[in-house]
Amino acid sequence: MTSIDFYTHVSDRFDVVAKLVAKAFAQHGSVRVLTRDAESTEALDRMLWIQPAIGFLPHCRIGSRLAAETPIWIDHLLEHQGPAAVLINLHDAPPPFFSRFERLAEVVGADEAGKAAARERFRFYRERGYELRTHNLSERG
């Protein structure tokens, strides 16, 4: 069963996502990031070309001709056909394919709308019996 981690009180969601992608890639070899929309996909794609500053995270979009050879996929499309190790969700709703993954990371911003949507996702997963962990990032120094 998919284990689910909520990362809450996040001031810069893309910064946290970049760190989670790097960690998941190193530990599991493949990562899927589901963004909210095309604009978010583009912004995160650009960011991962420069972060981490001393490394490279090989990534592309789901529809890329290189997707089959690339271990990190970033897209807002609500579909997934590739490996299913780690999924990072930035979408407001639970991804329809999340249960295929070993791990799911939910990254929750500090805005009220984002927190409300995260509460709904948390309830959705809990009602279905998933193991949930919460990490309050405001408590880290």
Account of the protein in words:
It is globular, with a radius of gyration of 14 Å. The protein has helices spanning 13-28, 38-48, 112-127; strands at residues 3-10, 31-34, 59-60, 72-75, 86-89, 103-109, 131-136. The model has no long low-confidence stretch (mean pLDDT 93). The protein has 141 residues and is an alpha/beta fold. It has a single domain, classed as DNA polymerase III subunit chi (Rossmann fold, 3-Layer(aba) Sandwich), CATH 3.40.50.10110.
Structural class: alpha/beta
* Beta-strand proportion: 15-25%
As laid out across the biggest beta sheet, the strand order is 3-4-2-5-6-1-7
Mean pLDDT: 93
Mind summarizing the main beta sheet?
A: 7 strands, parallel
Helix percentage: 25-40%
Q: How many structural domains does the protein architecture include?
A: 1
Determine the N-to-C terminus distance: 32 Å
The appropriate CATH architecture is: 3-Layer(aba) Sandwich
CATH H-tier superfamily: DNA polymerase III subunit chi
What is the highest CATH level, the class? Alpha Beta
Helical run tally: 3
How large is the radius of gyration? 14 Å
- State the low-pLDDT regions, or none: none
Q: From the 3D structure, determine the CATH topology.
A: Rossmann fold
Shape annotation: globular
